[in-house]
Amino acid sequence: MSRALPAFLVALVVATPTPALAWSDHDLLTREILRSNTWLNQYRNIKVKKWAYDTVDKGPYNPDFQPVFIDKLEGDTTNAREILIRYVDEPDWGMDDQMNLSPFQMLIGGSKGFRHQRYQFFNGLIRLGDAPTRAKANYELAKLAFRNKDPYWGFRYLARSLHYMEDLGQPFHTFPILWHWIWDCGFSLKAITNLASNEHFYYEAFVTKQLLKQEEHGGGQWLDAIHDAEAADVFDPAAATEALGNYSYERTSKLIDACDHFFPKRVRSKKKIVPLRQEDLDPAEPPPSFGTINEITTLQLHVTSKMVRGLLALAKRDAMVVPKSEDE
Fold first, then answer.
1. C-alpha 292, offset from chain centre
2. Which residues pair with 127 in a beta bridge?
3. Close Cβ partners of 108 (under 8 Å, ≥ 6 residues apart)
């Protein structure tokens, strides 16, 4: 069925909040992307500093959010790779919750959904979501931190920028459902929400599970797709993030349909959000639809890696200026 459905159906769909966790474990994806970025190795012995950008970083953020420090505390030393991997998940730690950002945010899962997704309707004529803007805003703050000779917050803001870009490499972040679900769910918003959320969560958990297995085995198709990606030509973080979202959007319906045939009936519940169960994430005999999931996920991970490496290459060109005294 055409995406160009009547407006009341679009309203029904976008009023269905869905999760905004993207690849579930951004640190896992980022760790694999960074393996070939050896230029980061020169940025070591970086001092952990408290956040001091309240006059320029207006966010806005969740009023209850405060930056936390994991593992390393103020005054300790760390390195660029560790900062990027540990803090790439930071935007999922509550900073984008409990805000009033847009009159349309209720249509895309609240303030967090609005910042971490970019839904498209009518073949892109209508777009909802702020992920590209957040990728650029944090990139600009990273540049400011480096100009202030503060590599710790330079890399930490860069990690946040990578997060929002990676979000749009996940197809569920560009369109949440199959149109026939509306009828299958009897036009029930709750039923559509449950079904969309279950498949979204399970797809992300499935990808994480398989990537971890490939790491344990020392390689695999999805890891190869990440490692073999050359940096894309990125000149603007927002435009690059938008382009990645467009790429994902073109494959969303096909991926969701494959997930609809892949996951067991328990996972595809319309009545409730179902808890994750390991046997559903690693079936002994995957159904035929796994071929489609495998094909699309391979492409998505490859292109996401290309775009993230492109953003890192841009940062290397115009943002990364670490004082010599902190890079020895």
1. 21
2. 120
3. 14, 17, 114, 117, 119, 128, 129
Structure tokens, 35: 């393996």
Of 258, 262, 251, residue with least CA distance to 304: 251
**Domain count along the chain:** 1
pTM: 0.90
> At residue 320, what are phi and psi to the nearest 5 degrees?
-85, 95
Residues whose CB falls within 8 Å of the CB of residue 291, separated by 6 or more in sequence, listed in order: none
- Rounded to whole angstroms, the Cα distance separating 96 from 102 reads 13
Q: What is the DSSP string of 241-287?
A: HHHHHHHHHHHHHHHHHHHHHHS-TTTT-SSSPPPP-HHHHS-SS--
Task: State pLDDT tens for residues 178-187.
Answer: 989 999 999 9
In 3D space, the residue among 233, 146, 181 whose CA is nearest the CA of residue 16 turns out to be 181
Could you tell me what percentage of the chain is helix, strand and coil, using 3-state DSSP and rounding each to the nearest 5? Answer: 55, 5, 40
State how far the Cα of 44 lies from the Cα of 46, in Å rounded to an integer: 5
CA pair distance 248, 172, nearest whole angstrom: 8
Please report, for the domain that includes residue 287, its CATH number.
Answer: 1.10.575.10
The mean per-residue pLDDT over the stretch 107-116 comes to 87
Query: Domain for residue 176, yes or no?
Result: yes
Supply the pLDDT for residue 326: 47
Residue 2 inside a domain? The answer is no
The tokens of 317 are what? 């060109």
Is 184 inside a domain boundary?
yes
CA angle 252–300–210, rounded 5-degree value: 105
- Locate tokens 């200026």: which residue? 321
Structure tokens at 78: 């760390």
* Angle, CA of 129, 207 and 264, to the nearest 5°: 100
Predicted confidence (pLDDT) per residue in 193-215, tens digit: 899 999 999 999 999 999 999 99
Q: Which amino acid is at 230?
A: E
